[in-house]
Amino acid sequence: KTIYLGSQFVHKSTDKGVTWEKISPDLTTNDSVNIKAFQNSGGITLDITGAETHCTIITISPSAKEQGTIWIGTDDGNVQLTRDGGKSWTSFRGKIPRMPLSSWVPQITASRHNAAEAFVVVNDYRRGDFKPYIFRTTDYGKTWTNMVDEKKVKGYALCMVQDPVDPNLIFVGTENGLWISL
């Protein structure tokens, strides 16, 4: 019965959104250059949403296997984890091999099968990098593997789903289609 909302902070409600509690510090890069560019624009930006100014949590994935474990991703390249409901956070910035710094993290999925497992979808097409990036950890981020080979999967990654019954069945959506791994 808990819902989460991201700004630069993680907000939590246990009463259907009537009241909210902030359970994190700023988990973004808090890049003053990007933030100032938006503030000084009068609200008018290149795409009119301000999205290119970054510094926003855009994905939150609480674990269904372990209470208090929550993964977040930002539009300025941060991946962070709490295992104590937000009291402390671990940053993986610069610690995921081959993940481009400051790329977008549009999706993180905490595994339904293993509390220590999570999948991180990353894309960097806004800067001309059309490679697919999906990273997996099975040990709370101590180690990471890149799950996709750009020679076999075409287009930048948008989303992934782990089958709810078979943990080895993975579906990946990219700019160019649907990919399945058995």
Gross morphology: globular
Oligomer: single chain
Gyration radius (Cα, Å) is 17 Å
Counting DSSP H or I runs of 4 or more residues, the number of helices is 1
Assign the structural class, choosing from mainly alpha, mainly beta, alpha/beta, alpha+beta, or little secondary structure. mainly beta
Distance between the termini: 33 Å
Low-confidence stretches: none
Report strand %: 35-45%
Mean of all residue-level pLDDT scores: 92
Series of secondary-structure elements, N-terminal to C-terminal: EEEHEEEEEEEEEEE
Question: What would you say about this model in short?
Answer:
Helices cover 4% and strands 37% of the residues.
Main features:
single chain; 182 residues; mainly beta; four-stranded antiparallel beta sheet; 1 helix; globular
Structure commentary:
This protein is mostly beta strands. Helices cover 4% and strands 37% of the residues. The protein has 1 helix and 14 strands, in the order E-E-E-H-E-E-E-E-E-E-E-E-E-E-E. The chain has one helix at 32-39, and strands at residues 3-6, 10-13, 21-22, 57-62, 70-74, 79-82, 90-91, 104-110, 118-124, 129-137, 145-146, 157-162, 170-174, 177-181. Strands 4-5-6-7 form a 4-stranded antiparallel β-sheet, with no helix packed on it. Strands 8-9-10-11 form a 4-stranded antiparallel β-sheet, with no helix packed on it. A hairpin with a 2-residue loop joins strand 13 (170-174) and strand 14. The termini are far apart.
